[in-house]
């Protein structure tokens, strides 16, 4: 039975099609389509959908306001009366739970909504405008970053549609509590001219930032969710978005520092790049001082000027020191590696103290065996692996800095 029904099981990631539609022509243009990176948060842990032949799920969004069309197509589906009571998965039911209210299932209705999209303008107020020159050549593209709050007129309805993208691209994603006024929002739009010469806006990326309270009268903004939509990746939008967040909060005297909640490796790399580029302008981070080791002056300047916390300030010191180190100079390179490894090893010093206590209760041969099996060898191997991984990340950041 399992083999007979295997053709009715499909990978949800392979049958989902997304579009950010600017014009009617985009609907039939395969080049405007993109897919999800995951779907377990909608269709279950195994990401499979059962019960359909030639299933195709279309989730189209108008490029600006993100009005949504859901189309579910298939040539056949399993019938309970002919399959021993087996039922096809409720695809629309699963999507209905996560899509914002107001989505349409009639394509003509969606096309009529596209006409209204020409009048869409971003919510909130403009923070920053910048241009991007495509690597493959062509005209410069213009982008704008806007700031909104819970109370910004019209924003919450728009955000309800925008946040649905998180489920397909951010693991363990969750929708925020829109009743909490401490949430702030930063959205990136491409500003472009359509064929009739009019100016339009297309949603490209966004971030949410929560303003945590800090005693006695301070705040600690924490970057929570950051997403660049697939058609807009690899052109530098996330770095511009993060810098816009910094530029908004840094001048505010009540802000102690700006942190990031559980950053992914990719986002940490972007954060490192932006922070390193900023700290490179500080006196304490100049090459001559970097070679002398991390100092309180570095932490203070990074915090006072850019609201960077001490842990991140130390990381940026390591990146910029590596950038300034002549790795052909064996002594200079060795000193750098030892400096970083000492920092990496610091949390494990407590383990040594515990081992000393253990020594008092174990027989000499038992203690020696314990030390050899989990002590020095583990520490040496762990340090080497950690360091090599870290240096590889640092070099990627440095490479980007050198491309500027």
UniProtKB/TrEMBL annotation:
Enzymatic class: transferase
Keywords for the protein's UniProt record, in alphabetical order: Acyltransferase, Transferase
Single GO cellular component term: chromosome, telomeric region
Family matches, as Pfam families: HAT1_C, Hat1_N
One GO BP: subtelomeric heterochromatin formation
Domain of life: Eukaryota
Domain Histone acetyl transferase HAT1 N-terminal: 9-171
Single GO molecular function: histone acetyltransferase activity
InterPro entries: HAT1_C, Hat1_N, Hist_AcTrfase_B-typ_cat-su
EC numbers, comma separated: 2.3.1.48
Domain Histone acetyltransferase type B catalytic subunit C-terminal: 271-322
Catalytic activity: L-lysyl-[protein] + acetyl-CoA = N(6)-acetyl-L-lysyl-[protein] + CoA + H(+)
Similarity comment: Belongs to the HAT1 family.
Protein name per UniProt: Histone acetyltransferase type B catalytic subunit
Protein's organism: Parnassius apollo
């Amino acid at each position: 039975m399992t083999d007979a029904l295997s053709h009715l099981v499909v990978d949800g990631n392979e049958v989902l099609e997304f579009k950010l539609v600017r014009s009617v022509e985009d609907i039939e243009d395969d080049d405007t389509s993109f897919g999800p990176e995951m779907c377990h948060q909608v269709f279950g842990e195994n990401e499979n959908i059962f019960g359909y032949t030639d299933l195709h799920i279309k989730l189209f969004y108008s490029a600006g306001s993100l009005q949504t069309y859901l189309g579910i197509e298939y040539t056949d589906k399993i019938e309970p009366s002919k399959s021993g009571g087996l039922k096809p998965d409720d695809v629309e039911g699963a999507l209905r739970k996560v899509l914002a209210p107001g989505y349409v299932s009639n394509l003509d209705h969606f096309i009529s909504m596209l006409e209204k999209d020409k009048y869409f303008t971003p919510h909130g107020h403009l923070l920053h405008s910048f241009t991007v020159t495509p690597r493959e050549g062509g005209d410069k593209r213009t982008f704008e970053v806007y700031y909104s709050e819970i109370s910004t007129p019209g924003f919450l309805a728009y955000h309800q549609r925008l946040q649905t993208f998180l489920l397909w691209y951010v693991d363990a994603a969750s929708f925020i509590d829109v009743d909490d006024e401490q949430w702030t929002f930063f959205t990136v739009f491409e500003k472009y001219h359509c064929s009739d010469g009019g100016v339009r806006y297309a949603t490209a990326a966004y971030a949410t930032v929560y303003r945590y309270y800090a005693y006695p009268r301070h705040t600690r903004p924490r970057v929570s969710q950051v997403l660049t939509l697939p058609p807009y990746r690899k052109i530098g939008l996330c770095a511009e978005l993060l810098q816009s967040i910094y530029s908004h909060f840094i001048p505010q005297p009540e802000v102690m520092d700006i942190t990031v909640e559980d950053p992914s490796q990719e986002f940490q790399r972007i954060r490192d790049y932006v922070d390193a580029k900023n700290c490179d302008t500080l006196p304490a981070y100049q090459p001559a001082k970097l070679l002398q080791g991390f100092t309180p002056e570095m932490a203070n300047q990074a915090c006072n000027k850019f609201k960077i916390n001490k842990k991140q300030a130390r990381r940026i010191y390591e990146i910029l020191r590596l950038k300034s180190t002549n790795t052909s100079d064996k002594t200079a390179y060795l000193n750098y590696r030892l400096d970083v490894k000492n920092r990496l090893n610091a949390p494990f010093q407590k383990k040594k103290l515990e081992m000393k206590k253990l020594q008092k209760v174990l027989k000499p041969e038992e203690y020696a065996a314990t030390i050899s099996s989990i002590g020095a060898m583990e520490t040496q191997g762990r340090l080497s692996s950690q360091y090599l991984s870290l240096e590889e990340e640092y070099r990627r950041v440095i490479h980007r800095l050198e491309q500027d």
